[in-house]
Design goal:
It is a single chain. This protein has 140 residues and is mostly beta strands. The protein is 3% helix and 49% strand. The strands form 2 sheets. Strands 2, 3, 5, 6, 8 and 10 form a 6-stranded antiparallel beta sheet that branches. Strands 1-11-4-9-7 form a 5-stranded antiparallel beta sheet. The radius of gyration is 15 Å and the shape is globular.
């Protein structure tokens, strides 16, 4: 089926922010209930520092506040966390990583290193394969 609008729900995970130091950007906790697919889509702006890297990690758990958070193993990912990150060579690019684990709650963290400039970034959680479709528009 080619209808992705009625079969997808996008949630802001990291709202647009400009990061000018090495502060980790922690996403909202995404509730996967009612969906059978989750992809995090990262949007990175211009990365000025030639030695800057953006590393991505992902946690999951069954408690709504993720007090039981554990690192997501590679077997529960589509793609890799390394490919979701970025370096100086990756200006104005989108990156993605999928989650196929069995936990209900998921979050990502983007951690800059060697960053002394202003990097615009954001992340969207794309929930797919809803148990009930069509999904609401605008999303709720």
């Amino acid at each position: 089926m080619r209808d992705s609008m009625n079969n997808t729900h996008n949630v802001p995970a990291i709202t647009p922010v400009v990061v000018s130091d090495n502060t980790a950007q922690v996403s909202a906790i995404i509730d996967t209930r009612g969906y059978d697919g989750l992809t995090f889509v990262f949007i990175y702006g211009t990365i000025v520092d030639a030695d800057c890297t953006l590393a991505v990690t992902m946690d999951h758990g069954d408690v709504p506040n993720l007090s039981d958070a554990a690192a997501v193993p590679a077997s529960a990912l589509l793609g890799t966390l390394a490919l979701a990150g970025a370096t100086f060579a990756d200006d104005t690019e989108c990156r993605k990583v999928g989650y196929v684990g069995s936990k209900r709650y998921v979050r990502v963290t983007v951690t800059p290193s060697a960053n002394a400039s202003a990097i615009p970034m954001a992340c969207i959680a794309n929930l797919r394969f809803p148990n009930i479709a069509p999904t609401a528009n605008p999303p709720q």
